[in-house]
Description:
The complex is a heterotrimer of chains A (556), B (347) and C (345).
Chain A: E1 4-5, H1 13-40, H2 49-55, H3 58-89, E2 90-91, H4 95-101, H5 110-121, H6 126-135, H7 150-175, H8 178-186, H9 191-220, H10 223-227, H11 233-243, H12 247-278, E3 289-290, H13 293-329, H14 332-365, H15 369-378, H16 386-412, H17 424-448, H18 452-460, H19 465-494, H20 497-502, H21 510-519, H22 523-554
Parallel strand pairs in A: 2-3
Helix pairs in contact in A: 1-12, 1-14, 1-15, 1-16, 1-17, 3-4, 3-7, 3-9, 3-11, 5-7, 5-13, 7-9, 8-9, 9-12, 11-12, 13-22, 14-17, 14-19, 16-17, 17-19, 18-19, 19-22, 21-22
Chain B: E1 3-14, E2 17-28, E3 32-36, H1 43-51, E4 58-63, E5 66-69, E6 82-85, H2 97-102, H3 110-123, H4 139-151, E7 157-161, H5 169-186, E8 190-194, H6 197-203, E9 206-211, E10 214-219, H7 221-226, H8 231-236, E11 241-245, H9 252-256, E12 269-273, E13 278-294, E14 298-304, E15 310-316, E16 326-331, E17 337-340, H10 341-346
Parallel strand pairs in B: 3-8, 3-9, 6-7, 7-8
Antiparallel strand pairs in B: 1-2, 1-4, 4-5, 9-10, 11-12, 12-17, 13-14, 13-16, 14-15
Chain C: H1 5-23, E1 31-36, H2 44-54, E2 57-62, H3 65-75, E3 83-86, H4 89-98, H5 107-112, E4 124-137, E5 161-162, H6 169-182, H7 184-196, H8 206-215, E6 220-224, H9 225-232, H10 237-244, E7 246-249, E8 260-267, H11 274-285, H12 287-297, E9 300-301, H13 310-314, H14 325-330, H15 332-342
Helix pairs in contact in C: 3-4, 6-7, 6-15, 7-15, 8-10, 9-10
Amino acid sequence: MEITTATIGLQQPRANGLIWRAGLVLTALIVALPVIVIGSSLFAPYSATWGHILDTVLVDYLLNSAMLMLGVGAGTLLLGVVTAWLCATCDFAGRKILGWALLLPMAMPAYIIAYTYTGLLDFSGPVQSSLRSWFDWSYGDYIFPEIRSLGGAICMLSLVLYPYVYLISRVAFANQSGAALEAARSLGAGRWTTFFRVALPMARPAIVAGLSLALMETLADYGTVDYFGVSTFTTGIFRTWYGLGELNTAAQLAAFLLLFVFVLMAIERASRRRMQFHTTSSRSSTKRSTLRGANAMMATGFCTLTVALGFLIPAMQLVSWATTSWRTSLDSQFLHLLWNSFTLASIASLVCLLLALFLGYGKRRYPGATQTGSVRVAAMGYAVPGTVIAVGVLIPFGAFDNRVDALAQTLFGVSTGLLLSGTVAALVFAYVVRFLSVSLQTVESGLNRIKPSLDEAARSLGSSNGRVLRDIHLPLLRGSLLTALLLVFVDVLKELPTTLILRPFNFNTLAVRTYELASDERLADAALPALAIVIIGLLPVILLMRNLDKGSANNV
Amino acid sequence: MSDQLKLDMVQVHYGELVAVHDVSLSLQRGEIGCLLGPSGCGKTSLLRAIAGFEPIAAGNITVDDQLLAAETFSTPAEYRKIGMVFQDFALFPHLTIEANIAFGLRHLTPLKKRDRIRDLLDLVGLPKVGGKYPHEISGGQQQRIALARALAPEPQLLLLDEPFSGLDEELRTSLAAEVRQLLKAQGVTALLVTHDQHEAFAMADQIALMNEGRLIQSGSGETLYQSPASPFAAGFIGEGSLLSVDPSADNALRLLLTGATDLPISTEFQVLLRPEHLVYDSTGIPLPIIQRHYRGSHYLYELALDDGQQLKCVVELCVELNPGASLPVRLTTEQLIFFTSTDSASQ
Amino acid sequence: MMLPYSALRTAMRTLICALLMAATTSVIAQELNVYSARQEALIKPLLDEFSAETGIKVNLVTGKGDALLTRLEAEGRNSPADILITSDAGRLVRAEQAGVLLAQTSPELETAVPAHLRSQEGYWYGLSVRARAIVYNSSKVNPDTLSTYEALAEPQWRGRICVRSSSNIYNQSLVAGMLATQGDAKTAAWLEGFVANFARPPQGGDRDQIKAVAAGQCDVAVVNSYYLGGMISSKDEAQRTAAAKVGIFWPNQDDRGTHVNVSGAGVTAASDQPELAVQLIAFLTRDSSQQWYAETNNEYPVRDDVAVSEVLATWGTFKADSVDVSELGKLNAQAVMAMDRAGWK
C-alpha cells in the first residue's frame, strides 16, 4: 500500500494564527496610541492647579455633565423608544414615511442644530421678537425658556441623538417573538402593560446599546455645550488647557473621562452579552396592530413632532439663511471645501472599514482574551472629545518624526523633516482613532450573524479562504459594510475639532468653514456649508433606511 | 479491498484539554460508519479533524491512501475532497438552491453543471425547488439539499454531523432510512456523528462508540447491543440495568440469576439485564412493582430488588398489576453479559 | 450583488496618492508657513496681497491659539511653521515661554509697534489693537452714569449686566489687566460685585451680548468694540437694527484707560528663514495693512499714525490702558482662577 502525502497548500495553522494574533494586537495598539498617551498622563505629577480645580469648578463640571447625561439619556429614551415601538408594532397614518423620516436628525450635527435654534429662539430671535411685537411686551413681561442653558443643550443633543436608540430598538421590537407578547395579552395584560412589562424588558439590551452610543456622543460633545455656555467636564478640559495653560492637567482630566467611558462601555457590553439570551430564534414576529381614533392621531402627532423638531425646523432655518447668503458663500472656494470634505471622509471611512474588517476577522478566526481586550481599547476613541484625540496624535507623531529625523541626520546627514505631522495621513489616523468603533461595531455585528458553519461548508466544498471571503462573506456582509462605510463617512464630514488642529496647510473643510463663520456669530453665512453637511449626511441615512426595510429578510 | 478512511492513533487537543485520545478506526469503500456517544465525548471534534477544521496533535488521518493530517501538518479542508453535511445544514442564505448545489462544482462546464444539479435534485426527490432560496423551503427539504450539495463534487468521503437533530422525531426516522438507501445506492463512503443510537442503528454498517475522548468499542449495531465490551457500552446501548452482584449474598437477585451459566462464583461482578431477558412467569421470583408504564403493545414494569437496586421487565398487556403488588419473573436466557471489577477498572 | 470593486480600487489609489503627496511637505525656498489663530477671513487677504507683491507663497493653517501652540511644540525643531499669529498677547507669551519663538530685532518693527504692544526681547509684535468697551442701551441708560469697569461692581447695576463666559480670552485678559493694575484683593472684591450684577448666566458671544442689550434683556454689556462695528456694517438688517439701539462707552478714561489686547505675530524657533518671516510681519504692520484691519474688522491699528475706519472715527478717540500686554499673558492663568473663585461661569 502506497501512501502519498497531500502537500498542496500545506498549512501550519498555529504559526499562521500567531501572525494574525500579533498583527491584530499590534494594529489595535497603534490605534489605541492616542488614548494610551492621554491615559498615561494619569501617572504624571499632579500640579497645584488640581487643588484649585477641586476647590472651585470640579463639582460644577461633574454636576453639569451628570445632569446633561441624565437629561440626554431620558430625552433619547423618550423619543427613541416610543417612536421605535410605535413604528415597529403599530400601524397608523404616515407610519411608513415617518418610519424613515425619524432617522433624518442623524444627518444634523449637534453644533449646527444648536446654532439654528439659538437663531430662532433666543431673546432677539424671530420667535421672541414676534411675541413681543404682537403682545407689546418687553423684557421681563413674559417668561420664555432660555435656549442657551443646560436644558437647551439637553434638548438639542436629545433631538439629534435619539435616532441611535430608535434605530437599534426598532429592530429589537420588530424581531420580538410575537408569542411572548400574545402570551402576555392572554394573561390579561393590556396594551400598555404588555409594553412596559414584556416588550420593554425584552428590548432592554438593544435600548441600552443605543443609549450608550448616544451618551458617548454626549460626553464627547464640545461644540454645543461650549456655544451654550454650559460648563461640563469636557469644556472644563479645554478651559484648563486654554485658560490655565495646563495641558498636562487637562490631559489628566481627559484621562478620568476615559476611565468613566471604560465603565460605560463595560456596562454596555454586559447588556449586549445578555441580548443573546433575549433574542429568540422564533419565526413568528410581531403582528402590527392598527391604531384608531385618538391613539392613531397621537402616534402620528408624536412622530411628526419629533421629526419636525429634530430635522425639519432647523433645516428650514438653514435654507432660509442660505437664501440670503448663498451669493457670497457659493464660490470656487466652496467647491474646494466640498471636495476636501468628500475625499477626507471617503478615505477615512475606507481605512476604518478595512481596519474593522481586519480586526473583526482576526477576532472571529482567533478568539481570545488578548485579542478581545486590545480591540476593545482600540475602539475607545469614540467617546473621547476630538481635540483630546488630536493632542494624543500630535505628541507621539511629533516625537516619532523628530526621532526619525535625528536618526537620519546622524546616520546619513540628511534631514527627513516631519514625515507624519501636519499631513492628511495624521488627520486620517485621528479620524480612525475616533471612529473605528463605529465601523467595528457594525462589521462585528454583521460577522456575528454569519454562522461559522457557513465558512466550513464552503471550505468543505473546496473554497479557499479568499473565495469564502468573496463568495460567502462579502455578499452576506454587504449591508453591514455599506452601513459601516457610510456612518463613518458622515461622522468625519461633521467632525470639527480634530480637523481644526491637525489639518495641513491651506486645507479647509465644510465643518471648519461652518464653525469659523458661526463662531464669529455670522450664522447666515455659515448656513450654506452647514446645509451641505446636512445634505451629504442624508445619503447614508437614506441607505440605512433601505437597509432597515430589507433588514429582517437578510437576517441569517 | 482497501480502507477508504483510516484513522491511526489520532489525538485532538484544545489547549490543555485532550478532546480525542488515540482513536484508531477504518472504513471500507462504500461503508457507512458512525461515531456514537454522549455529548462531549469527542465525536464531533474527531469529525471536524477529519474534515480539516481542527488540527490533530498526534496520529495520522488517511483518506484513499493519501495522508491528510499528522502531528506536523494539516491539509486545508478545501483540498481534502471530503463533503460535509452540517447540523444546522449551513445552506448559504444568499444563494438559490441551485447555486448552493453548484457551489462545489466550479470545475464543470455550465451545461454539465446544470445536468449534475438536476440529477442531484432528482436524487433527493426535490426536482422543483432549484430556483428557491433556503428560507423558502422546509427543514426536511433543507436537509436533503444540504446532502445534495455535499454530494455534488463527488467527495471521497461524506461526513454528517448530527444530520437529523434539527428535525422532528417522525421525519428523523424516515429520513435516516431514506438517506442510508441513497448513500448505499451511490456507493458513498460516509461517516456520521450522532448521540442517538436509533439513528446509528438505522444508518450505519459500523458503529464506533466513544466516551471521554476514547474509542470504547467498534462493530456492527448487533455486536454492540449483544456483546458490549464494557459496562459503559452496556449502559449506553439499549435499555437495560447494570446490577452489582455479590455471589456470597443470599438475596432475590442471586436467586434470580440461579439459572445463568458461567457467572463468577468467588468475586463480585456486574451483570447486564435487558428487559427482554426477563419474562413473566407465575412460578418465578416475585419482585415488588415500583411503577408501570404503558407502552402501547405492552407494559414496562420497574421492579425493586431487596438490596435496593432496580430492574425493568416487559410484559404483555393482559398482566395488569398495580404498584405495590409483586410481579413474578424468571430469566429467559442462560447467557448473560457480566463484567468483573477488572473489566470495570479499565473503563 | 457585489461590492463595486473598481470603485474600491480607485479609492485605494487616491488614498495612496494623497498620503504620498501629504508626506512630501519639505520646505521649498520662497515659501512661508503661517499658523494663525486669527480666522482665515481676517488674515488670508493680507497674506495673498503679500504673495502678489513679493512672489513668496504663504501657506496657512488656522485654529485655536493653544491648539496651534501645542502643535508647534509637538513638531519641535522640524516644524514647518515660520510664523505664529494669535488673537491675543497671552498666547504669544505662552509660546515665548514654551521656547517655540525666536527673538528677532528689527528697527522697522520696533518703530512701527509701540513698546507696550510687543515683547521687549522681540519674540513677538502686536498687529492690531482690540479694545474692550462698555455697550449700553441708549433708551435706558444715561452714559453719564457710566465711568469705569470697577464701577460696574456697584449695587446700582444689580441684574443689569450681560457678559460672555469666563472661558473667553477677552474676559480673561480684562481680569488679568485688573490684576496687573489693582492687585489681587481689589480684583477679587470687584469680581464678586461684578458677577453678582449679571442679568443672566454668561452665554453666547459678544454679538449676543450686544443683541441682549438692544432687546432690553440687560442694560450694559462688556464687549470688544469691533463686534459692534461688525454689526453696524452687517448685511443682516436685524443686526443693524440692534446695533442702532446701543451706544458705546470707553471706560476708565480718567485713570488707567480702556483695556486693550493685541493680536500679534512671532517668528518660530523652527523657522529656517527668519528674515523672510520678519519681512512678512513687517508687511502686516505697514500702513495699508493696518488700515485693512480697521476697514475689515474695525480693529484699531497698533500704529498711532494710521487713520482709523469711518465707523471707528464716529466713536471718537479713547485713552487705552498702557499696561504691558505681555504682563496680561503672564497673569492669564491667575485671572482664570480668580474668575473660577468668583463663580463667573
